[in-house]
Design goal:
This protein is mainly alpha-helical. It is built from ten helices and no strands. The chain is elongated.
Length: about 200
């Protein structure tokens, strides 16, 4: 019975997320009401409030799978070179590909009232990935004469990635995810190399 219940919950969440995404592509986030989401998803009000307090919570819940997807992609990605510090930004291409696939939603969200919350949530996901992947490497490889605090290192990489992805998504005809990933790597890898070696 538990598995059936879990599947039912997953199905409900899927319908609600799909409804919210389709509405975001049609109208401003601020004008989307819970009732509009319910009508689109064909889900009852009491069912919605059993799982979420409001549409913002539904929105952020949809980002929970992003971290797992990026971590899995990061672990499966073949190492581009023998340089261990390149794994620190191993999430970059999968994240660019994800953003490209959902660029309409990303652009709409980042321009909305929810944009700041979404940006902060994604920034935290990236910072966690960078921290988890680099803590041991940073301490092992960091040059002895470097005064860069580890926390600053993590936030610099995450914020730089968000700056690049924001610029890229705002282009009328964005270049391919692979090309922007190459540009990001050209910008960041020399910095990593010079600060870690």
């Amino acid at each position: 019975m538990k598995k059936t219940e879990d599947r039912r919950i997953q199905k409900t969440h899927k319908f609600l997320h799909e409804a919210l995404i389709s509405l975001i592509l049609e109208k401003k986030y601020e004008s989307i009401t819970v009732q509009k989401i319910l009508d689109r998803a064909n889900v009852g009000r009491s069912t919605f409030y059993t799982h979420f307090q409001n549409k913002d919570e539904l929105l952020l819940n949809g980002l929970h799978g992003l971290k797992d997807m990026l971590r899995t992609a990061q672990m499966r990605a073949p190492s581009v070179s023998a340089k261990p510090y390149e794994r620190i930004i191993g999430f970059s291409l999968p994240m660019f590909e994800h953003a490209y696939e959902y660029r309409g939603v990303w652009k709409a969200l980042l321009r909305s009232r929810a944009g700041l919350v979404v940006r902060q949530h994604i920034l935290k996901i990236l910072a966690d990935l960078i921290r988890d992947e680099s803590e041991k490497e940073f301490r092992k490889l960091k040059r002895e004469d470097s005064d860069i605090p580890f926390d600053l290192f993590v936030h610099f990489l995450a914020e730089t990635f968000m700056l690049v992805i924001g610029w890229w998504l705002n282009q009328n005809n964005p270049i391919s995810p692979k090309k922007i990933d190459g540009i990001f790597r050209d910008l960041i890898l020399p910095n990593l190399a010079s600060n870690l070696y």
